[in-house]
Amino acid sequence: MHLEVVGIGDPPLPKGAPQLVLQLLAGTLTPEEAEAIQQAVAEMRRIDWEIWEKTEGELEPVMRESWRGRLKGLYVITDPQLGGGHLTGARAALQGGARIIQLRDKAATTRQLIEYAQALRALTHDYDALLIINDRLDVAMAVGADGVHLGQDDMPVPLARRVAGDALIIGVSAETVEEAIRAEAEGADYLGVGPMFATATKPDAGAPIGPERLRQIKQRVSIPVFGIGGITLENARQVLQAGADGICVISAVLGAPDPAEAAHHFAQML
Predict the structure, then answer these.
(1) How far apart are alpha carbons 3 and 133 in whole angstroms?
(2) Which residue out of 72, 91, 104, 218 is catalytically annotated?
(3) Which entry of 121, 161, 173, 218 is annotated as an active-site residue?
(4) pLDDT in tens, 167-190
(5) In this structure, what are the phi and psi dihedrals at residue 268, rounded to the nearest 5 degrees?
(6) Which stretches within the chain are classed as H helix?
(7) Which of 202, 213, 218, 251 is catalytic?
(8) Which H or E element spans position 227?
């Protein structure tokens, strides 16, 4: 016979229930008493389901607001060629103080991405950090990542939101004020604005737009804004002074002789 366990913090049992539980354990319940218990359990489950359905829509905005508070600080994007690979590089970055890790690998197969993402999901949990997947909404949802980052040529934000609902952070790349305003209006949770400076890590990056563009965007949107592209320890303060909520880096941390130490120096600025 299956026994429903009542735990600490659960509602008190009805009058007479302790005696019924003792009888259940002793196997001396009458058929009528056993049926009454099953009906009571079914009713409690029905009530729990109704409460969940009514509050789900209220909880999702709360979840998104809680994420907003974590969308700041040092954001490190992994590279298979730097820092010893995705997992080793991410671990060093987290040890140094990174709060967000993005898995980015344009050459990996879907299966490889999932394997990397699963390992990074476990690692970021250990450090209470966020895991974002570049481009691939399917991979992000499959491994239970915290979010996905989309470029201007990737899946449109409204479609991504329709698939993922509000249970996923959606970040968007933006170079112009217009792109930034549109991304926020469509439901983006944060922006990656850049390139701030010239960068060799991302060959398809456009011409540098500089911290002043980030300042203009920050004045027009309410969601968190990260500066990205060519950021180093020497120029990071320019980006922060322009109003960035955080900075995204790749080679400045993962290409350093000691990635954990480099991440630590960046984290101290934030």
Answers:
(1) 42
(2) 104
(3) 173
(4) 899 999 999 999 999 999 999 999
(5) -65, -25
(6) 17-26, 31-68, 86-96, 110-126, 137-143, 157-164, 177-186, 210-220, 236-241, 251-254, 259-269
(7) 202
(8) strand 225-228
Q: Let me know if 182 is a catalytic residue.
A: no
Question: Other C-beta atoms within 10 Å of 219: how many?
Answer: 9
Which fold, 69-269? TIM Barrel (3.20.20)
Residue 251, helix vs strand vs coil = helix
Whether residue 250 contacts residue 76, with contact meaning beta carbons closer than 8 Å, is answered with yes
148/99 Cα distance (integer angstroms): 15
pTM score:
0.77
Query: Is 222 a catalytic site residue?
Result: no
Whether residue 72 lies in the annotated active site: no
Count of residues for the chain?
270
Tens-place pLDDT, residues 64-73: 666 668 999 9
CA nearest to 196, candidates 232, 147, 154, 152: 232
Amino acid letter, 14? P
